[in-house]
Design brief:
With 486 residues, the protein is an alpha+beta fold. Helix content is 53%, strand content 15%. It contains 10 helices and 10 strands.
Length: 486
Amino acid sequence: MTIRWRLTLWFTALVATLLLLRAGASWWAFDRTATRDMAGLVQDRATRVHNFINGLAAERRYDEVTLILRNPDILPRAFSDDGMILQVVDRRGRVVARSTNLGNKTLPWVGPGRLAAVYLQLPNWQSPNWLVYGYPLVIGGTPVGTIQVAATLQGIEMAARRLLVIELLGLAGGILLSLLLGFWLAGRALAPVVRMTATVDALEATDLRRRVDGESNDEIGRLAKTFNRLLERLEKAFDAQQRFISDASHELRSPLTAIRGHVQLMQKRGQSNPEVLHSGLATVQREAERVSRLVDDLLLLARGQSTGAMGQGPPTDMRPVVREMVEAYVPLHGNLSLAPLPTETFLVPVEPDRFRQVLLNLLSNALRETPADKPVVVGWQREGDNAVLSIRDAGPGIPADHLPHLFERFYRVETSRERNRGGTGLGLAIVAAIVQATDATVKVTSELDQGTTFAVRWPIVAAAAQDAVDEAQSLAGKPTKAAEPV
């Protein structure tokens, strides 16, 4: 069953329940009101009969009144010609007078001051239900019996039946109208969902630019806006995937093409020309190493995305790591230097190998882009609650419009130059992945012809605990892990 029909049926059930409650309340109110009005009439009639009998008693002795009441023709017809019947009972329960329309029947006993509905089948009356009121008959201050006045409930019952028929017809009409109205209203309410469904059905895997209508501020409008944001993320992810596939294919095609060309050249001229053979083998080895690095980087990124863990490790002091890597590069790059390391020990939650990878990628980029006569400075300092790894160069700088894209896969500021220098275009993407996995942040500042600075910030953890360990080792006569600054 569709949501539209479910909403329609819920709306119809609600309307039917309200109409049914209204019908029940109307019927109950009518019955109470009509019965109360009828009770007032019989009580008034009983009072008039009582006054009539007391008027007779004022003219005659009591015995004569009793004899007169036994005469069925002595009570005025006005008391019994409008749907009411009358019965007078003495103190012993004997009927001493009754109206002619009662015939030889006797009203069921209803005591003085009581009002009750009784069942009495009379020949000329369709309804056997009567409302009887007992009025105490007092003559000369002495209780002598009870006056019983009864009114038929036939009129009330007929009116109640007509009211019931009207209410049932109204209920049926209300249900039918609520079905039609509910179906229409549900259709109007769900129209944005229908349009949203049509839009989604029309989406293609290669085209995610379409958006659903989300102009309204209701729940469906918020759902549409949320879905549009999802489509935007999917579109960006799809575009990134397409770019990645294209760039990866291009990166792999270039070295493979070079390998294939040199292999063919060696097959034709290598046997007769040792120089061609040697040059071709060197090129094949270089391009194969490039493909290997590219594949390793891609596997590293894929593994980090699939596992969600790419570098998280126990808190470690990175001063020895920084010193070791800089010292390894200084003999090859005379323009590289290390800023003085801090004397205090502070730990960061990253594996040393991943830290080396971050430093290596950033340092390789800086050395590759910086002329040999311009300085490159590596720093490892504490700033508040953070440890900051900085690589500052005096190279040509990076244009501002390239800065937001530096950490995208295969992104190059100058594609041809960097490719010729051996880069894979994945170094900064790996840096960004490790930084994100270790709760760190990376910031790039650059000025053209002035240089570029990369700053990676890690939160410092467990410094106090490490100090305690160092103190304990010192007391035990063991060397500590803290290294002296260079």
